[in-house]
Predict the structure.
Amino acid sequence: MQDDDAITDTGDIRRDLTDYMEKIAAGLNRMRSAGRPPGEDGPSAGTVAELVAAAARHDDIGELERLVHARRNALARALIDRARERGDLRPDLDSGVLLDQLAGALYHRVLITGQPVGRDYAERLVATALDGATP
């Protein structure tokens, strides 16, 4: 889905995570609109839902999907780990949980709520995750 998209490390974790979430969102949006007539938008998850369902029903498809995501997730976790090592994130931060929170929210919007995902949402998502919900 985003195998050709680099995960950049500029040293600005907020920007880097936002850029990566935007790339995931773009991939989901491409899959969401696959097979639709041009210009036809809607809340349907499209082929994203089909792929998730197929991965849940068929072990071989599920294994392939997990392998693709594992490779990408390792790169994203390494980005988060480097930021933590630089002191940009809490030393006790679990990079896998942060990535789950961010990417999982994108999938939730596409699969469950049907709401749009894009740069604006990626910025708000990363800001909320990094800034926290408490004062």
